[in-house]
Design a protein that fits this description.
Elements: H1 2-13, H2 17-23, E1 28-37, E2 40-48, H3 53-60, E3 65-75, E4 83-97, E5 102-107, E6 110-114, H4 117-125, E7 126-132, E8 143-151, H5 158-165, E9 177-181
Antiparallel strand pairs: 1-2, 2-7, 3-4, 3-8, 4-5, 5-6, 8-9
Length: 184
């Protein structure tokens, strides 16, 4: 009996949250760049380390995964508060269609069919977003883009939401990342 209890306790130690969190990389935004001119800013960036192996397996089994991204553009002032010039919220989701054997990528600007999971993951993590801006864009002045992304659990079905509520593997949210924008 003592052997069974010891084995049970040792098996629980293998599932500690701290251990699994230490092994998984932290998601983030990288390679932020772009241009600003006239009434719009074009911002490019990459969402890195957003898909855990469990999420990839869930995607392969047909669960839809949605990311909501916020992109802000601001005019940078030295020794003063920055001025917000525009903001856009962008949604991108992917789902495996088992009947057609394709991944359906849905973006705010259209849909795309992809043949394999690697192509779907690549399209889900590389962005080029157009942000409408207000105010005049002055040549040679500093402008910056701020970007944040998070996994949208609201789009999941109710049983999955209740399961993933207790799983830190599905808590994907990045910190705000910044990148400079070029003026013409």
């Amino acid at each position: 009996m003592r052997v069974l209890i010891a084995l049970f306790l040792l098996s629980l130690l293998g599932f500690l949250p701290g251990r699994s969190l230490a092994e998984s990389p932290v998601p983030g935004i990288s390679e932020i760049s772009g241009t600003i001119r006239g009434g719009e800013a074009r911002v490019r960036f990459t969402l890195r380390d957003a898909f855990t192996p469990e999420m990839v397996e869930a995607l392969k089994s047909g669960i839809e995964i949605t990311f909501k991204t916020t992109v802000e553009v601001e005019r940078v002032y030295r020794r003063w508060f920055n001025r917000s010039m525009g903001q856009v919220r962008y949604t991108r989701s992917v789902r495996y269609d088992a009947l057609a054997r394709v991944y359906r990528l849905h973006r705010d600007d259209g849909d795309e069919l992809l043949a394999d999971v690697l192509a779907a993951l690549d399209r889900m993590t590389r962005f080029e977003v157009v942000v409408p801006v207000t105010g005049d864009v002055e040549k040679g002045k500093p402008y910056r883009a701020r970007v944040r992304a998070r996994l949208d659990k609201v789009g999941l079905s109710e049983p999955l939401r209740s399961i993933f509520f207790f799983s830190s593997l599905w808590d994907v949210e990045t910190d705000w990342a910044r990148g400079d924008l070029q003026t013409p």
